[in-house]
Write a structure and sequence with these properties.
Helix content is 43%, strand content 20%. The chain is of the alpha/beta class. The chain folds into four domains: 147 residues, no CATH class; 68 residues, 2-Layer Sandwich (GMP Synthetase, Chain A, domain 3), CATH 3.30.300; 109 residues, Beta-Lactamase (2-Layer Sandwich), CATH 3.30.450; 290 residues, P-loop containing nucleotide triphosphate hydrolases (Rossmann fold). Helix 20 crosses helix 22. The structure holds zinc ion (ZN). The site of zinc ion has 9 residues, from loops.
Length: 648
Amino acid sequence: MAANTVTETIGTVKQTVKSNSKPTNAEKKSDYGKIIALLIEVGLLTKTQVQYASRVQSKLRTEKPLLEIIKELNYLTDGQLRKALRENPLSIPIGDFFVELGLITSRDLDLVLQLQKKETPTRKLGEVMVAHNLIEERKLIAELSLLLGFPFVEPDVSKIDPNLLKRGAITQYQAHSFFPVRLEGEKIIVAFADPMDPRDIDAAAAAMGMPVIPAIATKLSINAAIAKLENDKMVGSQIIAETGESVVNIVNTMIVDAIEAADVSDIHIDPMVDRLRVRFRMDGVLALHKDYPMSIAQALSNRLQVLCRGDIKDRRCHHGGRIRFDHGGHQMEIRVSFYATVRGEKIVMRLLKRQTELLSLDEIGMSKRVMHRFQAGALDRSGGVILITGPTGSGRTTTLYSCIKHLNTMQNSIITAEDPVEYVIDGISQCAINTKINLSFEDSIEHMARQDPDVIVIGEVRDTFSAGAAVQAALTGHKVLTTFHAEDSISGLLRLFNMDIDGFLAASAVSCVAAQRLLRRVCVHCARPYELTPLDLRRMGCEFDQMAGAAFSKGHGCSHCRFTGYRKRVAAFEVLVLNDPVRDGLIEGVTSHQIRRVCKETTEMVTLFEDGFYKAALGITTVEEVLRCLPISHKPRSFAELARLLGK
Ligand SMILES: [Zn+2]
């Protein structure tokens, strides 16, 4: 609700700005900005370079800061920029500074300035920007720290000299958002939420009675330090939640928060020097959820161990367990791992997916025509090995289960050997490998064939034994589904062939290799059209005229996506359905380069990079994400050509 109100407020202000004929901040500036002036002065840029960059800027359809363009033209590196800024302190308002650096637009700055004026009491510009989602606090802090050379600190009350803390009053710390850290010679290092505000620095110097060296910290960590100081004063060092009851609540709330956030796969509980940090893994990326006082660590671990129905174990040993958690009438299964670290136990909880969350085949993100080839050439045929490859976290297990779900019909008997079983599906015989009770992979595979299955699922091919077993089962008429750790489809195929199994048999047994990766999706709530830069084109190895018909996009960050610009994920696929020329090549033992050429010429295989590139060109993911996650082996084909091969 709160987020909505904010957007609405900005919405109305935007209206007023439109009807306002006063020149905006950007229009007022006739020069190129103070930072660029400085760079010219110190000889890092020439006027000609700036003029050229400015011409490039005027030709772009989307707004882009001049400094950004200068960097893209390779006139300047981030390192040079930082060095120049640190060596030549500029007196420039924080807002203009951010506009010039391209962290916010001049239009957004005008909005923030107006919003700030309306506030009583007025807050700092940086705070207003953070409050209105124009910039994330961490980013703001990181940029200031990097660019201006302010040391980034996290004030830790337990490590600060108590005499130093007594120099100032808590009310002063609160009023100017600062916190003393330590002495350095005749000066004192003080953490500020806004180290660029001279009023705060003067106030701190007066309060501490000595000159200060400003450092930067998040407002959150300063507030936390102040709160801890207050608390320590009041009740010694006793902190909340010592009773079993409140720990029960803490654990429950933590798990419910994770389940309800929908895209959370893991909860990480890390012991830190002064606090217990709880992070959630969302869409594959860890983010801070909450901090708790260290004093609850032991009670929290005990509570989780009780939930795992285990005895309270020795904290110096690694161990694990499972929790069944009731939530909204459903049972949720959570796998818990306790890892003994030098600071205490690190606990990771993996939220296991429920059957209702299993994706059907048309939801896994495979393009229409590829899916058609995959089904017709492999999945719906009676025998053959289907290998799903990718590194850990590439979503291959999700795809494996979607295939199982598709094949789970009255006519099929499906049997699995998995380590561990990640989803429990009705109607199929799943076996979890457990070496502790001598339920080994070898044993299970031997017994599988006697169960008269149509489909055999081997969780993962890890060695010659399981590879050989998969091939054997396929040659005796079974359909075998398995996953394999490999970069792309062709290297997966070649790795299998190098596993000391008969090449001819393997070539006849394998029907398909599908490689995949997960890419973050552009957040639909804050997506904006994105224009490719010359650098994007160069990095992808494309020409501008290959892009006809493409519509790239990028999220600018909002509360729905936790200001990352991304929400949820989509898979990129490279599906190789083996044909005779490819099989012949494999048996002859040709090089991976030759196999790749044969695949491209004789199958309709689209590479991982091309599939990702196509998804970016449809605005589903971004160019950055494609370049970050996908291996680039050769120049992608044109958008039109890919559209023909992939379909929508
Ligand atoms: Zn968003």
